[in-house]
Amino acid sequence: MAGLYERNELLDEATMRKSGWTPERRAKQAEAIRRWQPWAQSTGPRTEEGKARSSRNANKGGAALDERLREVRLAVQADHLRQAELLLTRLRAMGL
């Protein structure tokens, strides 16, 4: 892993110089973030709207999938209905 980091650092050296992010500055920023620990200060959503929005974070297209499943079910039901009507017509034609 260290080798990968070193290779990325070498590849990005020109970019870091342009942006002002030297390896020293990056290390200093990383240490500051470790001390600050913003992830430990999170309280989560406080309003009902925020809680509702947060509860949908993991929903990745479930509504679209539900709609597609409903369409497929309706198509299958319609096909079954057509087959049943055809069978009934044949039975009536046979006099049953």
From TrEMBL:
Residues 16-64 are annotated as: Disordered. Residues 23-34 have a biased composition (Basic and acidic residues). This is Transposase. It comes from Novosphingobium pokkalii.
